[in-house]
Amino acid sequence: MPKTTLSRRRFLNTAAFGGAAATATLAAPAVLAQAPKTLKMQSSWPSSDIFQEMAAQYVNHVEAMSGGRLKIELLPAGAVVGAFQVQDACHDGTIDAAHTVPVYWYGKNKSASLFGTGPVFGGDANQMLAWIYEGGGQALYDELTQKVLGLNIVGFLGTGMPAQPLGWFKSEITDAKQLQGLKYRTVGLAADLFQAMGAAVTPLPGGEIVPAMERGVIDGFEFNNPTSDMRFGAQDVAKNYMLASYHQASESFEYIFNKDSFEDLDPDLQAILKHAVGSAHLANYSLAMRQYSSDLQKLATEDGVNVKRTPDSVLQAQLDAWDKILPPLMEDAFFKKVVDSQKAWCEQVVYYNLLNNPDYKMAFQHYYPNKI
Question: What average pLDDT does this structure show over 334-346?
Answer without folding.
Answer: 98
